[in-house]
Amino acid sequence: MTRDEITIADLRTVPHFAADVVDRVWRAWWKPRGFPLKHIANLVRDNLGAGPLPSAIVAHRGPTFMGTASVIASDMEERPHLTPWVAAVWVDQAFRRQGIGGTIVGHAARAAFAAGADTVYLCAVPTKRPFYQRLGWSLHEQDAGDHGLDVFTLKAT
Ligand SMILES: CC(C)(COP(=O)(O)OP(=O)(O)OC[C@H]1O[C@@H](n2cnc3c(N)ncnc32)[C@H](O)[C@@H]1OP(=O)(O)O)[C@@H](O)C(=O)NCCC(=O)NCCS
């Protein structure tokens, strides 16, 4: 690997990026709802456990963090029977629209399949629908839960 190459890795193999994952996920989804940083720090630490899930994917170029996604048991409390989910998909602004988001989502889904799932779920605001459909995800449900989200599925091939 040269330092110019983008690497997609399991957070377990690059745990020094855990603070970046915590920072991005907290700022994007938890801070606006009043949760302390420590809350998400504990959730991200769970991705370093011995079992295959939960897990986090990191995109980086050498020492530069670029993006992340997670595979977690549940991402929508109104749909507790659906599991596992790809969640917390994030690419830093400077690196967007280069295909990194799509690549991270694909890696996260494959991590779920490798852990034994035959279907993986993902929820998103409807404006993100073209992005996930282009990646091969199927719309499973619209206007789901309190936030009116799309629910997508992807099946192992
Ligand atoms: C959503 C998000 C993860 C996408 O990350 P990304 O790295 O820009 O994703 P990609 O580059 O794979 O695809 C994004 C778009 O760029 C396009 N694209 C990909 N490679 C491209 C290239 N080389 N040149 C131009 N456009 C390109 C894709 O077709 C896609 O278009 P679409 O938005 O019309 O579907 C990113 O915008 C983000 O972090 N947003 C904030 C958090 C968020 O909303 N997360 C999703 C929660 S559901």
Automatic annotation (TrEMBL):
Residues 9-155 form the N-acetyltransferase domain. PROSITE patterns: GNAT. Keywords: Acyltransferase, Transferase. InterPro entries: Acyl_CoA_acyltransferase, Bact_Acetyltransf, GNAT_dom. Pfam families: Acetyltransf_1. PANTHER family: ACETYLTRANSFERASE, AMINOALKYLPHOSPHONATE N-ACETYLTRANSFERASE-RELATED-RELATED. This is GNAT family N-acetyltransferase.
